[in-house]
């Protein structure tokens, strides 16, 4: 079978002919129709978070090609399914609480290990940018008839955006939130989901390009305001006090913060931060309301340039996240099945598997507007 494969952490991804995986008694072989592609695969490989050699790709939907001998729960060959790529032990404290993506053994097939222990990932690290993928039965969901394979694959990102919105905990009616770097997959699908969070009445879209920010405003009925900002100049000082142990005074609001406060006089209830690098969060953070929440999901290596005393005195919550839970994915599936949620208009790019490198280039250079990108392994007949 054809697969997008990494031999090691440094030599890049190559299309390769590999044997179709053989099945254990609890395994399902999925014939992949659609697979998602996201930035960051190469970064994680280089960071040593991924098993190698491996096949990459963690978002996929297709049909059941074969079943392990112990699977007798009604799943049949030919059934339409999606892969839930977040492996977990199913037994630990986090799993019992429903936070399976926080399991010590949590890992994403075709992507990387997140938890401390390797668990199922050692056996099931091979992902779905391939003609076939082998998946433990526990991580296979049936796909409703009205949900296309493309959407079945990209449901993964929608479920993560749902988790992020839940973590923002916007409980105050008529709240304003900020969405940073909102013009990619996560930002656009977050806009689609905001309607399920009725306390959010206004969204300030913070990014570099006014034109790209304006191009996503129609994706939600909720009021949006575009707020293009540029990086601070080299000699501008961060909004922090003097170094050392002394307690700094309140920061002088920058022009950016003053403008944000004019847009939201009662303060920003939450910042959902999808910025993958750079100082944006530090630039806008002083506009956050007392008891406001920051959910960081951009995976940025940049430090937060603000004295901790402001986090204390403003009672801010800074929340991280890792993917989504099984329940989040099911909630998205239910909304898609009932047509309460439509995200098919977010798919801007489709590539055949043989052009996977072109797909990765498009998503990494972002020369074009890429919202959701699909690898069509087998085009679905409509
Ligand atoms: Zn667990």
TrEMBL record:
Residue ranges occupied by any Alcohol dehydrogenase-like N-terminal domain in the UniProt entry: 24-145
Keyword Metal-binding: yes
A Pfam family annotated for this UniProt entry: ADH_zinc_N
Start and end residues of each stretch annotated as Disordered: 230-255
The entry's keywords: Metal-binding, Oxidoreductase, Zinc
PROSITE patterns noted in UniProt: ADH_ZINC
Single annotated GO MF: zinc ion binding
Residue ranges annotated for the Alcohol dehydrogenase-like C-terminal domain, each copy included: 256-337
Protein name as annotated: Uncharacterized protein
Species, as recorded: Penicillium subrubescens
């Amino acid at each position: 079978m054809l697969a997008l494969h990494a031999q090691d952490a440094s030599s890049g991804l190559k299309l390769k002919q590999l044997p179709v995986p053989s099945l254990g008694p609890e395994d399902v072989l999925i014939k992949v129709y659609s697979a998602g592609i996201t930035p960051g695969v190469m970064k994680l490989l280089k960071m040593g978070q991924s098993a190698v050699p491996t096949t990459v790709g963690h978002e996929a939907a297709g049909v059941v090609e074969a079943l392990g001998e112990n699977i007798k729960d009604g799943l049949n060959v030919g059934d339409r399914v999606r892969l839930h790529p977040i492996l977990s032990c199913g037994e630990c404290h986090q799993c019992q609480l429903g936070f399976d993506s926080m399991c010590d053994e949590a890992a994403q097939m075709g992507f990387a290990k997140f938890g401390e222990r390797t668990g199922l990932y050692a056996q099931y690290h091979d992902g779905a940018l391939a003609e076939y993928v082998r998946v433990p039965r526990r991580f296979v969901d049936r796909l409703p008839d009205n949900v296309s394979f493309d959407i079945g694959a990209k449901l993964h990102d929608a479920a993560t955006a749902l988790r992020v919105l839940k973590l923002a905990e916007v409980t105050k009616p008529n709240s304003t939130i900020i969405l940073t770097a909102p013009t990619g997959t996560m930002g656009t699908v977050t806009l689609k989901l905001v309607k399920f969070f009725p306390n959010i009445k206004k969204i300030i879209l913070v990014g570099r390009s006014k034109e790209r920010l304006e191009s996503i405003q129609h994706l939600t009925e909720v009021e949006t305001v575009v707020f293009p900002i540029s990086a601070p100049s080299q000699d501008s000082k961060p909004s922090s006090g003097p170094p050392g142990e002394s307690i700094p005074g309140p920061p002088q609001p920058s022009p950016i913060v003053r403008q944000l406060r004019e847009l939201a006089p009662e303060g920003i209830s939450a910042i959902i931060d999808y910025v993958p690098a750079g100082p944006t969060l530090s630039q806008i953070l002083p506009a956050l309301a007392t008891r406001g929440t920051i959910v960081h999901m951009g995976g940025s290596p940049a430090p937060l340039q603000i004295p901790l005393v402001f986090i204390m005195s403003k009672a801010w919550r800074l929340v991280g996240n890792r993917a989504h839970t099984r329940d989040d994915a099911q909630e998205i599936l239910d909304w898609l099945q009932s047509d309460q949620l439509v995200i098919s208009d977010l798919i801007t790019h489709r590539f055949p598997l043989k052009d996977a490198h072109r797909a990765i280039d498009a998503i990494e250079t972002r020369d074009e507007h890429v919202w959701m990108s699909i690898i069509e392994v087998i085009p679905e007949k409509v």
